[in-house]
Amino acid sequence: MDSVIARLDAWVIALTFSVAMTAFFLLGTWRGRSSPAPAGDHGTKFTDASMALLGLLLAFTFSMALNRYDDRRTAMVAESNAIGDLYTVASLIPDPGRSTLQTLLAEYISHRLEGRRHRALRYEPAVVLREAQQMHRQATAMVAAAVEEQSPVTVPLVDTLNDVISSFATYVAAYRERLPGIVLILLLLGSVIPAFLMGRQGALNTVHRSGPLAFGVLVTLVIYVTFDLNQPSGGLITVGEEPWVQLLQSMTK
Predict the structure, then answer these.
(1) Residues of the chain whose pLDDT is less than 70?
(2) Per-residue pLDDT, 66
(3) CB-side neighbour CA atoms (13 Å) of 71
(4) Contact status, residue 116 vs residue 80, Cβ threshold 8 Å
(5) DSSP structure string for 84-147
(6) What is each CA distance from 76 to 156, 191, 194, 245, in whole angstroms?
(7) b/e map 134-143, b = 16+ CB within 10 Å
(8) How many angstroms separate the CA atoms of 121 and 128, rounded?
């Protein structure tokens, strides 16, 4: 279930919530008209309690999505710094190893930027992983050659290479992290139940129609922003690629 939800765009989820809340509001209205409650018993306490619970669910879910967004941004900066450090250390080894390794790193960043703009990690994750592993093997072979030549920067060269490989694994893990599917189900239930209760109260003339409309719009917008933060690419809110762009520009100067 989680893998299916992960492939859904934020606007699809928000539209689903909007349609579901509208349907349950109309169902509640029909129920209120066909089976009126006893005089003086409009169930407003249950409606207030369900809306309060929905507010808590939205707040916690938004916080979780925002944390995952921050993790992806931190992982991108960490990987960019690790590649930049390896590029700098590589400048201290003699040619042809220096030029070969630096060219490899520049091409790798350029390729990663192109893949990011085409959402390669979303649609072709196996290809991205394979290409990254190939680059890591090539860089490892070049570093091994420098070690055999007893280069004076052997230790920092090995350390920065390890940082590049580790930071890539951290980036992929942060990219794949999503909100659990059960959270989406809880939010859906927490949204349609208040909509149903408000529809029922509206049939009893205890709720003005503008209230449920504003409620539905606000919940839909919050859901959209939350799951837009939850998806790493393709939405309105994405992690900027400035660290990689600036790094590539510094390499090509």
Answers:
(1) 1-6, 35-44, 202-209, 253
(2) 92
(3) 20
(4) no
(5) HHHHHHHTTSPTTHHHHHHHHHHHHHHHHHHHHHTTHHHH-HHHHHHHHHHHHHHHHHHHHHHH
(6) 21, 35, 40, 12
(7) ebeeebeebb
(8) 6
Give this prediction's pTM.
0.82
With b for 16 or more beta-carbon neighbours within 10 A and e for fewer, the 46-78 pattern comes to ebeebbeebeebbeebbebbeebbebbeebbbb
- In the block, residue with structure tokens 């449920």: 212
Domain residue spans of the chain: 2-251
Residue 194: CB partners within 8 Å, gap ≥ 6? 47, 50, 51, 54, 215
Which amino acid would we find at residue 131? Answer: E
What is d(CA 160, CA 83) in angstroms, rounded to the nearest whole number?
8
Taken as a whole, the chain contains a residue count of 253
- Which residue pairs, CB below 8 angstroms and at least 24 apart, start in 11-20? 11/224, 13/184, 13/223, 13/224, 13/227, 14/220, 14/221, 14/223, 14/224, 14/227, 16/188, 17/187, 17/188, 17/191, 17/219, 17/220, 17/223, 18/216, 18/220, 20/188, 20/191, 20/192, 20/195
Both tokens of residue 144?
Answer: 């091994």
Q: SS3 for 207?
A: coil
